[in-house]
Design goal:
globular, two-stranded antiparallel sheet, 15% strand, alpha/beta, Rossmann fold
Amino acid sequence: MSAFDAQDTARWFRECFEAVRTQVAQVIVGQNDVVEGVLVCLAANGHVLLEGMPGLGKTLLVRTLAESVGLGFSRIQFTPDMMPADVTGTNVLASSPTGDRVFEFRRGPVFANMILADEINRATPKTQSALLEAMQERSVTVGGTKHTLAEPFLVMATQNPIEQEGTYPLPEAQLDRFFFKLLVPYPSKADLFEVVERTTGSASAEPQVVASSDDVLRMRQTVRDVPISRDVLDFALSIVVATHPEGEGSSAFAKRYARYGSSPRGAQAIVTAGKVYALLDGRFNVAREDVKKAAVAALRHRVILNFEAEADGVTADQLVHESVKAAEIGKADPIGV
């Protein structure tokens, strides 16, 4: 790709991204970082885990995003008594045109472009795994038959950080399949005023369709085409290595507070997200600042802290920040050494 074509592609990507963000902002008040993070996941072909209190607009966010890009939306409310078939669908006995009795597959709510998995930690591990299979394989298997999901496909899962009774926390291996974990904060007083004014008055904002599924697929291909230099890639990998409690690249913070560090998917996530941030800045190459911007959201759910961290009040975000500092110092060995 020539320099002119790369610049033109980066401009188109940024304009499409901002057009969708503008439509979402007409409905969602504040939450700018969360909205941007979700849009980054959409462009990077990665699923997102939202953690926050009830009533902060998570359902409205994904519905508005789906309407802005003309995609099908489905909401799944997870409960302890939900079965995998309630997610994927099941075979039912039906009558054929000739009058014979045959099994017919009835699709579940997972057959949509954008899925809101509300309170995913309330479902049993068996039901959780049904959705997570769809997230990883982009297909579901029912009765020995494989059913492919339509692209683009994005899952936004939510969980309540304070309720633990009657919940089934996602295992680490399943958390690892989420591209980003975003924390949804409580709105400020000014934002809360705007929320109440919008939702209790007669006027209501309706998002316009400003992109299509083809645009989303093109954005994802554009992200993959962005090059990354060996030096920046080495920096990204050094951040991931620094989260591990063992090894030459470990940070002193990780050695003390980490039980396990990030998986290789963490490295893939911060590199891919870094490409998105580069395009949003009008560049067709990744810089260190792009990688640093993606590090916390991509790694906070992929590191496991030990008991000492809990006793000292250390968070996963702090460990990731310290790992970035260690990578900047250059503690890890360069690639190829």
